[in-house]
């Protein structure tokens, strides 16, 4: 079964240095969907064990299975427009509406 449009929870504002948890979920997809978060239209990278200069700047943890995006300590750099995409390889992937977070 193709995924339905996921429900995204993105706070509209956050204080610098706080923990922010965003969530993304859809329930129709079978097999269960994987979730990809985007910031300003750019797909966010999963943090992996290998370190490159770019990945060293990653301040979040993205879980593709649960759809959560967790920032340990948000900074002004994390301000932006976020959305998430659900896909399970069947039918078209589905995106939620873009939501802006201001830090």
TrEMBL record:
Gene Ontology CC, one term: cell surface
Keyword Oxidoreductase included in the entry's annotation: no
Keyword Signal listed: yes
Domain of life: Eukaryota
Gene3D superfamilies documented for this protein: Immunoglobulins (2.60.40.10)
Keywords carried by this UniProt record: Cell junction, Cell membrane, Disulfide bond, Immunoglobulin domain, Membrane, Signal, Tight junction, Transmembrane, Transmembrane helix
Membrane topology: Single-pass type I membrane protein
Pfam families: Ig_3
Residues covered by the Ig-like domain: 3-103
Transmembrane segment boundaries: none
Gene Ontology biological-process entries: leukocyte cell-cell adhesion
Subcellular location: Cell junction, Tight junction; Cell membrane
Family classification: Belongs to the immunoglobulin superfamily.
Name of the protein: JAM2 protein
Organism: Cinclus mexicanus
Gene: Jam2
